[in-house]
Amino acid sequence: MRDTRSQFRPIDHPNDHFILTTVVGSYPKPKWLNQARESYHVHSNKGSRDQYTEAKNDASTIIIKEHEEAGLDVVVDGEMKRNEMVEYFAERIRGYEFNGPVKVWGHNYFDKPSVVEKVSYREPWLLEEYKYNVKISEKPIKVPITGPYTLANWSFNEFYKNEDELSYELAELVNMEIKNLVDAGVRYIQIDEPALATTPEDHKVVRKCLEKITNGIADDVRVGLHVCYGDYSRIFPKILDFPVDEFDVELANGNYSQLDVFKKVPFTKDIGFGVIDVHDSRIESVEEVRARILKGLEVVPPDRLTVSPDCGLKLLSREVAYKKMVNMVKATRMVEEELDRGEIEVVK
Amino acid sequence: MNEYSFMVEIMSSSLGLYPLPDWTKDELSKLKGHQRDGLISGNESSLINSVYDSAREFIIGEQQTAGIDLIVEGQLRWDDMLAHPLIVHDSVEARGLVRYYDNNNFYREPAVVGELTSNGDVARELEKTSELVSTPSAIFPGPYSLSKLATDEYYGSETEFLEAMGGFVQEEIQGLPETSYLTLLEPSLAVDPPHGDERELITDLLKKIKNVVKTELIIQTYWGAFDEETYAILLELGVGIGFDFVTAERSNLELLSEYGAPKMASIGAINGQNTNVESPEEVQRLIEGILEKSPDIQRVVVTPNTGLFYLPENRFTDKLGVLGSIAGVGETL
User: Fold this and answer.
1) Minimal C-alpha gap between B106 and chain A (Å)
2) How far apart are CA A302 and CA A347, in angstroms?
3) Please, what is the Cα angle at B194 between B191 and B198, to 5 degrees?
4) Domain range holding A190?
5) How many domains is chain A partitioned into structurally?
6) For residue B313, which residues of chain A lie inside 8 Å, CB to CB?
7) What is the ipTM of this complex?
8) What is the pTM of this model?
9) Mean per-residue pLDDT over chain A, rounded
């Protein structure tokens, strides 16, 4: 298997073993960023737009620094410049229209867009975000992109014969975007497909999408696939044939009830192992996270384990999100030390 | 004019959840937060309940403006389409978020940890509705779907659990105020049909429920069609039957031509999950097509195939308008 991981090992990494730590993507937005956005929406003039742009850049800077301080090996800017994981992209793709907020669960809504004509690539989606972040960060940057299957299924489809057809067209657009990003220097892409594993056959559609997405992308570019909430038995072990390096899953929220699914056959890809419950504001202790990481080592050896929260942290308060990450990194480094000392048995 | 046309009464209504009016969304999320502990538990503050009361009044007005015949409560307090009566129950623990029915709707997993005694939450919602409109139409999740959604940690066997759920639903609906119709939502009957002993048991439970309800009962499914056995049982029971013609038009037409039609049919003719707004004419054509093939049908309730809470408010209002106008067309047939 190709090695796309070692490029992210910090030069001054303290332990022999290296378990990659990162986040899935989103992070709570500072209140002043939301205020700047509100002000821009109310006034819609140059002054408020400039202020909002400045606030977004400042927020990206702060969150990258916060991720660095927490000790993460690969950072994200917390998606400070994105309003939501489907909306943000739909606003930049021709063929979408918006009608208003729709319930997801509880009091969480999103502006679920409707596809009303053929979709096409109008402008780069994340190039500016990446160019800014790479200037700011001392750590490698990961770029999360919402996958075409989720973009299709979390939209109202008024135009295409079915969502699969829409997914394939969107996959071509994601491929164009990734080519632009890789040209700009991106080496770690994460395709977010929370809609995967929700129907028995959707893995076939996502696989075909990923083939389109990774077509013509250089070998040293690390491509991850993030999934949450799904029934993993529907997609494992089929996903081991997907053209991705890492498979990132939510597990803490379900108290690892699906862990055994991944033990049925050897897990031959890297696993991004969810160890932080993002729907619970209680901060897991270092010891608790350590125990969860050890569960990950029941599935893959340390050099194929990536430790991350279950999902984006955006629904938590910033203080809680930060403390959760700090404990996550501490626990990971603790496990690495134990591995160095030969105190933990690992799968081969 | 065909023979059926002057004999059939056509009414409009809807199934369960409406979207919260946009003006309440910010207010409620500020009062309740965005986390699991911000979801409905049944112990909300009077401030929160007063927002829901205003929203309920608003949504009833919307139905009246649109010309809907059978007004529903709108279930704006519900966090999901089905689990609510369990979630607010003292003997049920609301666990992690899970997805059922292969679509992007989340439920807190209801774990039953004690006896499912009568609770009365839905009755209280309907009583408030009855203060605003005489004899509203009631919607309640059916025992089969509830038992499939929930986890049993008390009763011990599937049979006892399903029986207990049947008893719970029966007691709950006996406590409801007077309503024009009672629709039991049973998507699991289509998605995951019962077999063998389970089928016999659910037949018994539905029979018991039919015997205690004072009003006309409709067993409604969506996300597919009933299987042949279940459909035959429902016909035999003589209840109203609710079909999802958006996702399963062909299967439903086959059932109607193969096994015959109920006297009372609820037709899910408007897509509750897509912003594309149907024209009154296309819905009318669908209804006429069904009635031509099924002369036994005497009354029709036209509804969306699911709750409308999936929709943004503008399209929800548009779809209510279409429903309201359909009933008008029907009355002139």
Assistant:
1) 6
2) 9
3) 150
4) 16-30+72-340
5) 1
6) 100-101
7) 0.82
8) 0.85
9) 95
